[in-house]
Amino acid sequence: MTDQNASPAAPIDKEDKWGYDLYPERKGEAPKAKWWQIAFFGEGQVNKDRFKCERNVYYCFQNSPLVKLMYSALKSSGCDIDLRRHIACEVCDIKVSGGYDPELNQIVVCQNVARSEGMIQGILTHEMIHMFDNCRHQLDFKNAYHLACTEIRAANLTHCSFLSAVGQGDASFIRIKQQHAECVKTKAIASVLAVRPDVGKEEAKRIVDQVFDRCYADLEPIGRRIRRNSADMIRAFNERGNYGYD
Ligand SMILES: [Zn+2]
Prior knowledge:
With 246 residues, this protein is mainly α. The chain has one domain. Helix content is 54%, strand content 5%. The protein has a three-stranded mixed sheet. The longest helix is centred in the middle third of the chain and has 25 residues, at 144-168. The radius of gyration is 17 Å and the shape is globular. It starts with 34 loop residues before the first helix and ends in an 8-residue tail after the last helix. The structure holds zinc ion. Zinc ion binds next to helix 5 and helix 6.
């Protein structure tokens, strides 16, 4: 999260960033292997990872009830997803597994971190909730309250439930058996801090607390909190008609 990786050719305005340091490929460079990726992993590995990641993304869009539900919710809201345009597999900082770039309206799946279908399903669902909120409410991601709200919703609807430790790769949040709401709070604060290094921990906590009740109660478009190992995923997908999604 320091500036040491920033390319002098592509300065990033601090005001405009949403965690660019974590997504080096987001700096306007061509979407191909960078010298530093090749130096660390070899070009062959980078390309192989990208191919695998894209194949897993495609698999989730074909087979995951949650990803399919989010896809149809977005489509019904006028924000159709084109896999090639809206989803990008990239090499990221290992601190993150995925992200949503509100400026390009693109989901980033971190090909060097997210290596399984299950993990990619979790990332896609989480980031598609940000995309959905942005589509529905024109979120201002630079506004920490907006950011906190969509992070609460993403954690509430997915992460703190069935996706659990493998879903987002940060098992430590789940290891201790927390109350669901506490889990959502912890995860949302961590997500706000990851995207906004300028916001302190106490401030992030205060912001999350302030919007928590309203955003925690808003279950659209999944309609329920998905429990681990339950039939909720399928049920949510089957009941998508209740919200008018097809
Ligand atoms: Zn998020």
